[in-house]
Amino acid sequence: MFGAATASYQIEGAAQGDGRGPSIWDTYCHTPGLVANGDSGDVACDHYHRYPQDVALLRELGVDSYRFSIAWPRIVPDGSGPVNPKGLDFHSRLVDELLAAGIEPTATLYHWDLPQALEDRGGWRVRETAERFSEYASVVGAHLGDRVPRWITLNEPWCSAFLGYSVGRHAPGAREGRGAPAAAHHLLVGHGLAVQALRAAGLREAGITLNLDHNLPATGSPADRSAVTRADTLHNLVWTEPILAGRYPATEEETWGESITGQDFRRDGDLELISQPLDFVGINYYRPIVVADAPYRESDPALRVATDNRYEEVRLPGVRHTAMGWPVAPATFTDLLVGLKERGGRRGECRRGRPRQRPGRLPARPSHRAAGRDGHRRGRPRLLRVVPPRQHRVGLRLRQALRHRPRRLRHAAADAEGQLPLVPDHDRRAAAVTALGQSVGRPRESQTAT
């Protein structure tokens, strides 16, 4: 499958138009000094007004599927209470435009734009936000579920919980110790409640998208290997253990210490809610992370943030790095997927005539076949995240977009095809994707980290 994806705040604009309420990203971007150049999503790509042209561009690219996110503050401006019909109408028109163009829509319920009114009442630190999220999911599921076959509850909840409530580099910009683990848990509860709401609306497929990291020790020392355990817990296990195995990470106390002990935000029945069967688990993968043991950055536990976990990142040698400073090592994606499969398995069960996941099991779907050892997936992958015009917080200077790389893509595919086959031909596209993966940054055997 050849697909494209965007995020509502990054592309829509019309931040104050047609009844949309403020989100935490509106507040964050308009706080002086937090975003490079003072950039914001006030206008962005003006997708709210230009979506017919944008869908025409998608059709020109030849994509089969488009993943968009729904702006919660455009649907329920205050996070709870009255629904904004103009917000629903916009997303309904977008879905109809996609279907008319022969493009399958996939909807993400939450791509970080929490209504500011809910943040003012505690945000994801408190359970109320998860409950309001379920109500919002019910509204949009009932309105769009007859035309949108695939639904994602949360996109990259790690960013919402830890960049938002610990590092402070994403909205709402908090730097806390106990608040971030509480936010992570309530995001998981919100995911579980939203899945229930979507199922109640009769929707076909529901899942979640996680940004997982492949963590490597800087050396073979026991201290660095323990640092990898803490990094895995922070970035991966906090999500995969509850969702796939129905349990909390055994290493959470080692990772968070006093930030997790004595917590009171978990309730009986939460794990059953969080680990209910899913149709898919999406994985966004950016880079491997090399970690080394290190002391706490903050010696006072009362002031320590949740991402201060006694390790530091070090540069992966022998590979090139992106403008973001991230190493280009595609073979590590293979290692991540294989490791996830080995920990969780892939056996599914059948309910209501469809494959379903058991706790501790990945869905039995062809799109989750393990990657080939040469660093690209076998089968038909959903390719690339396309056209977020700004990377949150760094402003407009760094772009991640397919439209900004046509020459490179065509060059990568030239040997196999002569041109990038942006036409409805899956086998030719897969060959082009393979050529792209082979031409960009594959580590030589002597460079592959172990």
UniProtKB/TrEMBL annotation:
Pfam families assigned to the protein according to its UniProt record, in alphabetical order: Glyco_hydro_1 (PF00232)
InterPro entries tied to this protein: GH, Glyco_hydro_1
Any Gene Ontology CC annotation: cytosol
Region of interest (Disordered), ranges: 344-387
Keyword entries, A-Z: Glycosidase, Hydrolase
Protein name: Beta-glucosidase
Family per record: Belongs to the glycosyl hydrolase 1 family.
Species name: Streptomyces violarus
